[in-house]
Specification:
This protein has 352 residues and is of the alpha/beta class. The chain has a single domain, classed as Nicotinate-nucleotide-dimethylbenzimidazole phosphoribosyltransferase (CobT), large domain (Rossmann fold). The protein contains 14 helices and 6 strands. It has a 6-stranded parallel β-sheet with strand order 3-2-1-4-5-6, with helices on both faces. Helix 11 links the parallel strand 5 and strand 6. The longest helix has 20 residues. The model has no long low-confidence stretch (mean pLDDT 96).
């Protein structure tokens, strides 16, 4: 990989605007309600105000990028669905039939689909071709990606973030599709958190308990195979990651560098968020977290990131669906912050 000093993921990230945070906090204290009575909605508005350096935070213009790729470990039977479902879901996204399509339409969001490395190119005109390869290698046998493949996948995320910035998005949401990607996300979580796979492995697309245990054993064996104290965060991502997880990692880092707020989805996207913060720690300052997945490892990742998710609805679909659901509440937080009257405006007596 290139030296840190010359490679864009390591470029500096500025923190959110402290002055905007203070102004938002002051306004929240003057709105016609008891202080803190709107709970997390108050914090969300203040965080977004600081990220956007704005007195009126906004979440109207949403940019959703769904990255798709295949995984070599899928051939080990770690998913309840066959690998061809990844490519079939690309067609479903394009035809408007997936959950994220329904949610994006409801939100009026921009939705794009990026092929970062399915087994076969889709040939679909409405899918962005950013392929790093024909699926990753089986990480239980060797590194999931070559250095060149990792660079291509990270660049796919960089490019998606730039499209969001050019579209003047208020918030970026990343989504993913890839049969076998919960195994990749679990391995990444285990490697970064130094935990055994039994703590993080879950049912993914619908495995029974015996299959989950088998998946955990495969991941533990892979962790032992790759174990090296000299591994950098990029090395870990290359060893275990999927192309779509690497693309999400790149998108999150670039959004932070471009001062674009990120609304993180579930287990897979949080694994990418963990990767991003390991590579460039200040990325964390630009993240809001949409929901807590039903995947057991997600809670551990959220704890490691000191993240408080907006929703907990027992979801585990992916695609960016949990974050898209949370976007509605983010909009409500902005509406309350921007449109409520202050005590002075309303002529209401404040508490003594």
């Amino acid at each position: 990989m290139p030296e840190k000093s010359t490679y864009w993921p390591f470029d500096a990230i500025q923190p959110p605007a402290e002055g905007a945070w203070r102004r938002a906090e002051k306004r929240q204290r003057r709105l016609t309600k008891p202080a803190g009575s709107l709970g997390m909605l108050e914090m969300l508005a203040m965080q977004l105000a600081a990220m956007q350096n704005a007195d009126q935070p906004a979440a109207e213009r949403l940019h959703i990028s769904v990255f798709a790729a295949d995984h070599g470990i899928a051939r080990q039977g770690v998913s309840a669905y066959p690998q061809e479902v990844t490519a079939q879901m690309l067609a479903n996204f394009v035809n408007g039939g997936a959950a994220i399509n329904a949610l994006a339409e409801n939100l009026g969001a921009t939705l794009e689909v990026i092929d970062v490395g399915t087994l076969r190119a889709s040939g679909l005109a409405d899918v962005i071709d950013a392929r790093a390869g024909e699926g990753t290698a089986d990480f239980t046998q060797r590194d999931a990606m070559t250095p060149v493949e990792l660079k291509i996948a990270l660049q796919a995320g960089f490019d998606a973030a730039e499209r969001a910035v050019r579209g003047d998005a208020h918030v970026f949401i990343g989504g993913e599709m890839g049969i076998g990607n919960t195994s990749s996300a679990t391995a990444l979580g285990c490697a970064f958190l130094q935990q055994p796979a039994s703590y993080l492995a879950g049912p993914g697309s619908g495995l029974d308990d015996d299959a989950v245990m088998r998946k955990a054993r495969l991941i533990d064996a892979a962790l032992a195979r790759h174990a090296d104290d000299e591994m950098t965060p990029l090395d870990i991502l290359r060893a275990y990651g999927g192309f779509e997880i690497a693309a999400l990692t790149g998108a999150f880092i670039r959004c932070a560098q471009r001062r674009l707020p990120i609304l993180v989805d579930g287990f897979i996207c949080t694994a990418a968020a963990l990767c991003a913060t390991q590579i460039n720690p200040t990325t964390r300052d630009w993240m809001l977290f949409g929901h807590q997945s039903a995947e057991p490892g997600h809670e551990l990742m959220l704890y490691a990131l000191d993240a408080e998710p907006i929703l907990n609805l027992d979801m585990r679909l992916g695609e960016g669906s949990g974050a898209a659901c949370a976007a509605g509440l983010l909009r409500m937080a902005c509406a309350l912050h921007n449109n409520m009257a202050t005590f002075e405006d309303a002529g209401v007596t404040d508490r003594t």
